[in-house]
Design a protein that fits this description.
This protein has 78 residues and is mainly α. The chain is 64% helix and 0% strand. The protein is built from four helices and no strands.
């Protein structure tokens, strides 16, 4: 994953690890994201969406760079 999205991913991991889905129900964080997303706190849901948007933005920049054949340094500010 791009380093520009790493802060969001780190925050999402922390949020999941402190959620009731992991602590009280004993699920893995990955299970909480895939199978129990509706049970997550709003903060985790927002971080999940922000991480998705960040990763999607990085993919778009990469494909734009490939189409132009000349790649300039892109600055991505989330």
């Amino acid at each position: 994953m791009s380093s520009s999205c790493s802060h969001l991913l780190s925050a999402l991991k922390d949020c999941l690890l402190h959620s009731d889905c992991v602590i009280k129900q004993g699920h893995l964080p990955s299970e909480c994201l895939k199978e129990h997303a509706d049970e997550l706190p709003e903060q985790c849901k927002a971080l999940r969406q922000a991480t998705f948007e960040c990763k999607r933005g990085m993919v778009r920049l990469g494909s734009a760079c490939m189409r132009r054949r000349k790649c300039w340094t892109y600055l991505y500010i989330p």
